[in-house]
Amino acid sequence: MTLIIPGVEIRVIKELVPRQLGATGILGIVGHTEIDRSREALRPVSTLQEFRELFGAGSVVSMPEVAQAFANGVREVVCANVPATRGSKAGRTVSVRLADSSPGTMRVTARTSGRFGNRIATRFVRKGDGSTQLVDVEISMQDRSGALQTVETHRNLATDASAADFFVTALNQRSAYIRIEAPNEAHLTPANNNPE
Fold first, then answer.
1. Which of 17, 124, 157, 184 has the fewest CB neighbours in a 10 Å radius?
2. DSSP one-letter string for 108-130
3. Torsion, Cα of 140, 20, 46, 38 (10° steps)
4. Which residues contact 160 (CB under 8 A, 6 or more apart)?
5. pLDDT of residue 19
6. How far apart are CA 131 and CA 128, in angstroms?
7. Cβ(188)–Cβ(98) below 8 Å
8. Which pLDDT score, from 0 to 100, does residue 9 have?
9. Which 3 state secondary structure label does DSSP give 51?
10. Which of 14, 52, 17, 15 is nearest to 35 (CA)?
């Protein structure tokens, strides 16, 4: 939640993994991160929020061991990320209908490189018709047994690029799992039920 008063900004940030009393130990970990800091000196982080800010929200998903470490009493985590040039982001091209009703495509990719992206599925569900169409986006992750578990749901997003809640912009800002590269069109409508 952000409250903005002229000249003052107040933010309430909830730490999802509370620090344990008497946390001890330092964990070193290597993995794929959203923000490539492989050329920088290693820096320890002492909270999950600090890790998220330093390496990006997608890193919390691609490196779940960091959250587990803090939940189990580790005081600091030192993360060395795999360079962005090592590995690729899983993705899929999805069909869309453009403003003039002609077919087009957009690219849905995982936020970070690594194998975890192969377990992500994205489902688009259109609602309404004409210029008032909305879309719900459900993002699921395959667990160890192969079953899909819903991890994010974004409802009532606009298909009109001029709207404040345009689905491409909203997902690129809010989702910890995916990013969308779409053609520069005024109106995009994804096809229903396209898993990534």
1. 184
2. EEESS-SGGGGGEEEEEEEES-G
3. -40
4. 131, 166, 186, 187
5. 55
6. 9
7. yes
8. 58
9. helix
10. 52
**In the prediction, which pLDDT does 82 show?**
86
For the chain, the C-alpha Rg in angstroms (whole number) is 19
Closest CA to 143 of 116, 108, 106: 116
What does the alpha-carbon distance between residue 154 and residue 87 come to, in Å, rounded to a whole number?
28
The token duo for 157 is 């997003």
Alpha-carbon span 31 to 48, nearest angstrom: 15
Pairing of strands 26-31, 76-81: parallel
The pLDDT tens digits of the residues spanning 98-117 come to 766 778 888 999 999 888 88
Residues with Cβ < 8 Å from 14, sequence gap 6 or more?
none
Please identify every stretch of the chain with a pLDDT value under 50, giving residue numbers as ranges: 1, 194-196
CB 154 within 8 A of CB 136: yes
Burial class (CB in 10 A: 0-12, 13-18, 19+), 49: middle
Contact by Cβ (8 Å): 49, 15: yes
Task: Give the whole-angstrom CA distance, residue 149 versus residue 141.
Answer: 5
Instruction: Please measure the distance between the N-terminal and C-terminal CA atoms of the chain and give it in whole angstroms.
Output: 30
Of the candidates 58, 69, 86, 88, the one whose C-alpha atom is nearest the C-alpha of residue 17 is 69
